[in-house]
Amino acid sequence: MSGSSGRIEMKTPLVELDGDEMTRIIWADIKEILIEPFVSLKTEYYDLGLKHRDETDDSVTTAAAEAAKKYGVAVKCATITPNAQRMDEYKLKRMWRSPNATLRTLLNGTIFRTPIMASPIRPIVRSWKKPITIARHGYGDIYKATEMRVSDPGRVELVYTPKSGQQVSHLVQLVQEFEKPGIAMAIHNLDDSIAAFARSCFNYALSTRQDIWFSAKDTILSGYDDRFRAIFEEIFNAEYKPEFSKRGIEYFYTLIDDAVARVMRSEGGFIWGCKNYDGDVMSDMVATAFGSLAMMTSVLVSPDGKFEYEAAHGTVTRHYYRHLKGENTSTNSMATIFAWSGALRKRGEMDGISSLVDFAERLERASIDTIESGVMTQDLYNIAEIENKRAVSTKEFLCEIASRM
Ligand code: NAP
Ligand code: MG
């Protein structure tokens, strides 16, 4: 579908969440150089820049999340999560919560991280040919732990007190009879949260047509991790099985040890669903082994199929200060470009606009071609294995991509 200008017309607006520092500069340039010449861009704009979050007492973040729920597809620029130093720098009224945390809570979503691959950037694991996507559960376990140090002999117990006052068995369970000093901990999770995680994983597997693995340690935690395994299995069988076989993709559960071994031997090209801690650790390992944080994309998927696309990296503060001093920067815009292409592709799929889906493909192809022809930003230049490579500035890189569209 294209309008009188020859540009691709959209139906439903994308929810556009602007952000901070160097990524905010890149954001405007991507729109101007790579998108608006080709697409008659329709967005509902929310400024999540820290200044505007402060001016609106952060109500803009909640409004943005509501819009993402309403329209179904959002694209987000990296934003500053305030700390003590930012309080001074921006003279903030309060230390506002991380916008990502607010969006994740309101959308009840799971984050999927996928590396962008380009031939000069070789994965450290030789067998990896396709990206590996990590889906990390975002609630509970050790991130909401209660810890205790025991210094004298005594008994540590886990006690459950029903609200109803009803008598049930296993109200008290012995953790350990301590004879010597030591440590103890209690963690929890919620069936609802695990179910939302499972649905997000299955929806994303369908949406990207990839197999999904889920791993845990149910042999050891036959009450705790087995609950995760059972909820995944129940939801898969009840809601997703026929759709998976129709699309020729697979779901399977395996022990975390087995998953780790399989991942290292694999070619990639699948989604790995991880419990909160496993996902935290494994996503850093996978990102590093694929080459660079600046090449990692991230998408938040809600259990009812709403999508929010972004780069996995932050606002690249050091580069921004150089930019403000008028110095040349060479900041990698790949992950932010792929956030845009991901969101536009999804919008195109939902609205049945094949030209928009094609445009997203073309933009991604031109971006990767640019790197594969040896033109790249400094961070990649430092690790690229290719003859005649050339490091270019932030803006030159975007213009090089545009020339290949
Ligand atoms: P960062 O912005 O990701 O940057 C860390 C370093 O990684 C940079 O200084 C740079 O190294 C390198 N880098 C990251 N992205 C790059 C890119 N696109 N191109 C080239 N190099 C890149 O993380 P941070 O410094 O920890 O955080 C800065 C701000 O971002 C903080 O205010 C934080 O709250 C926020 N943040 C936001 C998000 C989000 O919105 N999703 C995520 C993380 C952090 P060199 O300086 O050595 O070149
Ligand atoms: Mg981590």
Itemize the secondary structure elements and their pairings:
Blueprint: E1 8-9, E2 14-18, H1 21-35, E3 39-40, E4 43-47, H2 50-55, H3 59-71, E5 73-76, H4 84-89, H5 99-107, E6 110-115, E7 132-136, E8 146-150, E9 154-159, E10 172-178, E11 182-186, H6 191-208, E12 211-216, H7 225-247, E13 251-255, H8 256-265, E14 270-274, H9 276-290, E15 296-301, E16 307-311, H10 317-324, H11 334-351, H12 354-372, E17 375-376, H13 378-381, E18 390-391, H14 394-403
Parallel strand pairs: 1-3, 2-4, 2-5, 5-16, 7-14, 12-13, 12-14, 17-18
Antiparallel strand pairs: 6-7, 6-15, 8-11, 9-10, 15-16
Helix pairs in contact: 1-14, 3-5, 6-7, 11-12, 12-14
The protein binds NADP nicotinamide-adenine-dinucleotide phosphate and magnesium ion.
Residues 280, 284 line the site of magnesium ion.
Structure overview:
The chain has 405 residues and is of the alpha/beta class. It has three domains: 1-106 and 305-405, Isopropylmalate Dehydrogenase (3-Layer(aba) Sandwich), CATH 3.40.718; 122-141 and 192-290, no CATH class; 146-186, no CATH class. It has 14 helices and 18 strands. The strands form five sheets. Strands 4-2-5-16-15-6-7-14-12-13 form a ten-stranded mixed sheet, sandwiched between helices. Strands 1-3 form a two-stranded parallel ribbon. It has a two-stranded antiparallel sheet with strand order 8-11. The longest helix is centred in the middle third of the chain and has 23 residues, at 225-247. The chain is globular and about 70 Å long. The structure holds NADP nicotinamide-adenine-dinucleotide phosphate and magnesium ion. The site of NADP nicotinamide-adenine-dinucleotide phosphate (NAP) has 17 residues, from helix 10. Magnesium ion is lined by residues 280, 284.
